[in-house]
UniProtKB/TrEMBL annotation:
Organism: Wallemia ichthyophaga
SUPFAM superfamilies: P-loop containing nucleoside triphosphate hydrolases
Residue span of region Disordered: 222-242
Lineage, broadest ranks: Eukaryota, Fungi, Dikarya, Basidiomycota, Wallemiomycotina
Domain of life: Eukaryota
Signal peptide from the UniProt entry: none
Name of this protein: ATPase domain-containing protein
PANTHER family associated with the record: AAA+ ATPASE DOMAIN-CONTAINING PROTEIN (PTHR37096:SF1), YALI0E33429P (PTHR37096)
Length: 509
């Protein structure tokens, strides 16, 4: 009945004159009339929409360009690296032991960075989080948080790519740092020291996950482990007695030019630096989750370690120049090959001792002088750039710019430095007592002097020093009551030469 009624109604509508089966709609007519009535606003809206579309288009293009840019790994072995076997073996022995917080001291251009980088770039053993503070991207806690968070995300992405079986876990841990950073950005308040503390906790959690993870577990076993309220004790840690059954790479945090940390985070943010150093101490010495390596050319960084109560938890090693034999090999096997005028080679070899007495054992000084100052500019050794710069540094310290005066006792201290020998060194604390802390620290800050803190690893192997105690293979007697010395030395061989030259000039006046 209803169907019949519907058909009758439809037939009736079609019988009406002018009826069309196509329905008409006036939807949007108001917008059309508004656009016609106010063309200025319409054009403005069209322009704005066009700009927005152009902006989106540019962002998509930039995103595509970023995707096409291949990631470049900057932490690689230096080209033309000249081997230093003794020092390399010492660094490897340190990395193969229990987790350590190690601080490497050494004057500028001694090759610390190249040496440590050469060892750490062994991709089969270590996975490294490198931070070079010479090109740091932070000046306060807020920017430090963003920079460190980005570094940690990249580190665990590297775990995902380079550690077999850890692809999924590494990616997941990297996302944790990314989303933590996004949450802080959305909060609209600059990151504080509290956020950095939470970031260190997240880093600890991620490392615990790394050491606990077992790729051989089934998905069900892994879910059961993930559902636990707290993480169990890690099955493995960075210890010499713990077998690395899953071939995990040992995590290493490496900070180059570490003395810039207190400079970048000034006294106003000293609490932030305390959080960082304490956090690294816990992760390294207490939890044994990674090795931490600081590298610095500033002897005054020792004061930072003492002030923040970190020194007692660290191992301090000192890298000096390569030995004389190493320099001789470097000259014959490397530098002379780059001097095409073979008739000049005998003259260089004959004057090796004379050159070494001034330039000492810095590879870069030998290269700059022989291949630059002498070969191309024809300069004598005392006219070379490195010798001239060293004399300028000493003279400028003794005769500072207008308005400043030379600290008293400076000349007396330099005379003492010139007389000191390896057998009769001048200890820094004795020097401070005799000549004043201000005098000593000023010469250290200007990189005229350095302190040989800790164990020097750049000298001949102690096994060669069998005359010390032949029964102990050259080691000292444990019961020997011999005081430790932290000798004050010229920052380089050429600086020592410059000090003596300047003192001669003063004696003639």
């Amino acid at each position: 009945m209803l169907r019949r009624t519907s058909l009758l109604a439809k037939h009736y509508r079609k019988s009406i004159p002018g009826y069309s089966t196509q329905s008409r709609s006036f939807f949007g007519i108001g917008d059309v009339l508004g656009a016609i009535g106010n063309p200025k606003e319409t054009l403005s809206q069209i322009t704005e929409a066009k700009n927005e579309l152009e902006k989106v288009k540019n962002e998509l293009v930039e995103m595509g360009e970023k995707v096409r840019l291949p990631p470049v790994r900057t932490f690689v072995r230096q080209p033309n690296y000249f081997s230093r076997k003794l020092e390399e073996d010492r660094v490897r022995a340190m990395l193969d032991s229990d987790a350590t917080f190690t601080v490497f001291f050494g004057a500028a251009s001694t090759g610390k960075t190249c040496l440590i980088r050469h060892v750490l770039t062994d991709n089969t053993k270590y996975i490294v989080l490198p931070i070079d503070l010479r090109i740091s991207a932070f000046t306060d806690p807020a920017t430090f948080y963003m920079s460190l968070s980005t570094h940690l995300e990249a580190f665990f992405n590297d775990v995902s790519e380079s550690v077999d079986g850890f692809e999924e876990l590494g990616h997941r841990l990297g996302l944790g740092f990314k989303h933590a950073r996004i949450d802080v950005e959305r909060r609209g308040v600059p990151p504080s020291s509290t956020d950095i503390s939470r970031l260190m906790e997240l880093f600890q959690n991620a490392l615990l996950n790394y050491w606990n993870y077992d790729p051989s577990l089934t998905e069900e076993e892994r879910k059961k482990l993930d559902n636990q309220s707290t993480l169990p004790e890690p099955k493995q840690r960075v210890t010499c007695g713990s077998p690395n059954k899953l071939n995990r790479k040992i995590p290493v945090l490496y900070i180059d030019e570490a003395h810039r940390l207190p400079q970048l985070l000034d006294t106003e943010h000293s609490g932030t630096l305390k959080i960082i150093l304490d956090g690294l101490t816990v992760l390294t010495k207490q939890e044994r989750l990674l090795h931490t390596i600081f590298c610095t050319s500033d002897s005054m960084f020792m004061s930072t370690l003492v002030d923040y109560n970190v020194l007692t938890h660290t191992q301090v090693l000192h890298v000096t120049d390569p030995s004389k034999d190493s320099i001789r090999s470097y000259l014959k096997d490397h530098l002379l090959l780059q001097i095409n005028q073979s008739h000049l080679h005998p003259h260089i070899i004959e004057n090796f001792d004379n050159i070494y007495s001034i330039l000492g054992g810095k590879y870069i000084h030998w290269k700059d002088y022989l291949l630059g100052d002498w070969l191309h500019d024809g300069l004598s050794l005392t006219q070379s750039k490195v010798a001239t710069h060293a004399k300028i540094s000493v003279e400028s310290h003794l005769y500072p710019s207008s308005g400043l005066s030379t600290p008293p006792n400076t000349l007396a201290l330099l005379h003492e430095i010139a007389k000191a020998t390896d057998d009769n060194p001048l200890d820094i604390f004795d020097a401070r007592r005799r000549f004043g802390q201000e005098v000593v620290d000023a010469l250290l800050c200007n990189k005229i002097l350095e302190v040989r803190w800790g164990n020097v690893i750049s000298r001949s192997n102690f096994l060669e020093n069998a005359h010390m105690n032949p029964k102990l293979d050259g080691r000292s007697d444990i019961s020997e009551n011999k005081p430790a010395i932290n000798p004050l030395k010229p920052a380089s061989s050429v600086m020592g030469w410059a000090i003596k030259e300047v003192l001669k000039k003063h004696e003639l006046q």
